[in-house]
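Section 5: illustrative case.
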């Protein structure tokens, strides 16, 4: 979703990203940072809307995880929810499509590359009380 912004919003997006990146690693909200990267290129991007989409994903996944037995089952349930129910997957047809790199587009289209799909996974997992971290 896009909203009207002034011409000063692209520098604001860069400043918001820089402020997040300057935080200690354990305090960085990677999903928010990724959305601010997209907002610099798309000055009308509604970052709050896409952050709320991540909250909605976690809220929809929560009932599925309540019946899980143990952490491993919770992780498996989350994987099934994101892949099977939400249809998040790698864009095998066009890996280099730039939209695969913008978290907002990944949330809208359900297609991404490993790093953007991982951002969704880690963010939703954290909202559900699961410890997850990206690895290089």
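Designed sequence:
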């Amino acid at each position: 979703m896009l909203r009207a912004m002034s011409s000063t919003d692209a520098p604001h997006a860069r400043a918001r990203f820089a402020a997040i990146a300057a935080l200690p690693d354990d305090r960085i909200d990677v999903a928010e940072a990724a959305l601010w990267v997209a907002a610099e290129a798309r000055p009308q991007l509604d970052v709050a809307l896409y952050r709320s989409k991540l909250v909605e994903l976690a809220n929809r996944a929560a009932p599925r995880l309540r019946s899980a037995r143990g952490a491993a089952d919770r992780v498996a349930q989350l994987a099934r929810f994101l892949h099977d129910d939400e249809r998040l997957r790698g864009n095998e047809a066009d890996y280099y499509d730039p939209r695969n790199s913008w978290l907002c587009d990944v949330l809208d289209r359900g297609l991404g590359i490993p790093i953007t799909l991982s951002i969704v996974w880690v963010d939703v997992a954290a909202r559900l009380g699961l410890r997850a971290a990206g690895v290089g």
